[in-house]
Amino acid sequence: MIWKLSMTGIKSRLRDYMILFSGLAIASAIFYMFQSIATNKAFLESSNTVKMAAVIFQFGTVLLGIITVVYILYANSFLMMLRQKTYAMLMMLGAKTSKIAQIIFLETFIIGFAATIIGNLVGIGLTSVVNYLLVNQLEITVKNFSPFNLSAMIWTFVFFGILFIVTAFINAGSIMKKPILQLLKEQAMPKALKIHPVLLVLETIVGVISLGIGYYMLAHINQYQLFGIAIALVTIVLGSYLLFHAIAIFVLSILKRIDAISMRKLNNFTLSQLTFRIREYTQILTMVAILFAMAMGAITVGLGFRTQTLESTNKSATYDLILNNSQKVDTSKVSALNPTVNDTYSQKEDETTLYYNADEFNEQPFQDKDFQSQKVINYSGKDMLENQQLAEKLRWYGTPEQQNKEIKFVSTEEFNQLALPTTNMELISVSNFKESLPQIKKLVEENTTNNPSLATGDGFNQTAQKYVMYQISNSLYSGFQFMGFFLGLAFLTMLASCLMFKILSSANTDKARFQMLRKIGTRPSLLKGAIRKEIGVLFLLPGILGIIHVLFGLQMFKELMSDPYHGIWIPFSLFIFLYAIYYVITVVIYGSIVLPKESE
């Protein structure tokens, strides 16, 4: 019987449950995808640098998990509000509270379990797609990769299973504690709205100051670091809440006093609807604004990282290619690059010292880049002889065994007198590193083959090799790119679902008001217009504040990105389009509930 009542309850509220279901399914799909890529053995063993991307996906999993907890708690509280009248009726018919708790537990767990199953199936597909895109972007080869990852699936079920069990107990407990009369009438109980002008002004001032502190911390995140993030999070949430509360009450009270606005069509009805629940909307609008900023910020930053790989690489290296023992390399392969700089330096070495011919550096000055000003400075052999610190700059261009030796510059005569074998080091620059990347990659691989010691140390002993730095940057930024995009998508689904739940939770109560308006002769077009305006305000307010949060919040990425605002219109347009779709869906669902059948 309990099972039958649970299934009946789900069917009766299937439309509302589908909103929760969609959010949970997307969250679990992305959770699985992050875990699958971060723990996939074939992917991790494909390249040493790819492990950096795996760490980023693990971080994304943690962040997604935290936001998912908040989402489920909010969404389920709204869902319980929709169902509590039904539970109250069952209690009036004699059902025990323990049985009601079992029904609630089953309903919550069934929806959660089904959403997790669907999410895992979708996650397997997402993993396959993201792996393909990531492998192409990282220019690596992954053998025997499988999008099905049993470990990731188990972690997904464990995390969401525990979350649903806890949520089910919370839902059951909240219903059991409330008297039947409260369950029946809670949604219709108006909240007293007291307007204190002085208090509103103080709230506005404190809200603006709080936001200012939060934005300042984000702009100087490099200075304040984790402390700045913690302060920014608290002050921005507080500032958003106070501004929504103060400005909403103030604006609504002003608009209702202006007859030209309030008496036009159904504006007074819409304003009264918003005023009726203003305190409840303040909390949800604050949360939606923060999630909106996080979602849009994640997508914006994620897509912004597309251009950072090459920019970061160009800033980090002076030469485009380093060839150790270049006498072993076919000169035609180097000539095919059409190098703009091709300097070859002779080397001789014993057990403790690495010798260079200073006269060769006089003819072909060594180039070094100031990484702050990005200015290239030429150093001659004379400069190297006079300043040992300049000679030390060559240390990182050698092989690992050469990097531990003393560097010494000598004249041509002294160099020729050394009874040691001669090798060559060739430093090359090209006109366009990106276009020459395929040829450079082959030469770097050949250079590693000719110098086996370069293959040790996870490749980080070749920090002067531009291609190696390109791989490291590409792995790092590609991980951020995919993580940001999919986190943004998950956050968007969650925030829109929460806002939809909040609006739809009052739909049954509002139905009587709309039916009354229809009975007194109000045109259906005016009723639909009132719905569009009311829901439009609830979507627009957190959207505007969320955009402001993003514009200031991007300042915290200026150390990682050369221009975090570059091409910002692309992610903004994409996000606003998706957000508008949720607005339209909410209008349609709400309208189908509250509008009398004959008016549609």
From TrEMBL:
It is a multi-pass membrane protein. It is found in: Cell membrane. Keywords: Cell membrane, Membrane, Transmembrane, Transmembrane helix, Transport. It holds the Pfam family FtsX. The chain crosses the membrane at residues 17-35, 55-82, 103-134, 154-176, 197-218, 224-255, 284-305, 482-504, 535-557, 569-595. GO terms for biological process: transmembrane transport. Its main location: membrane. InterPro entries: ABC-4_Integral_Memb_Prot, ABC3_permease_C, ABC_permease_BceB-typ. GO terms for cellular component: plasma membrane. Residues 62-177 form the ABC3 transporter permease C-terminal domain. Belongs to the ABC-4 integral membrane protein family. This is ABC transporter permease. It comes from Vagococcus martis.
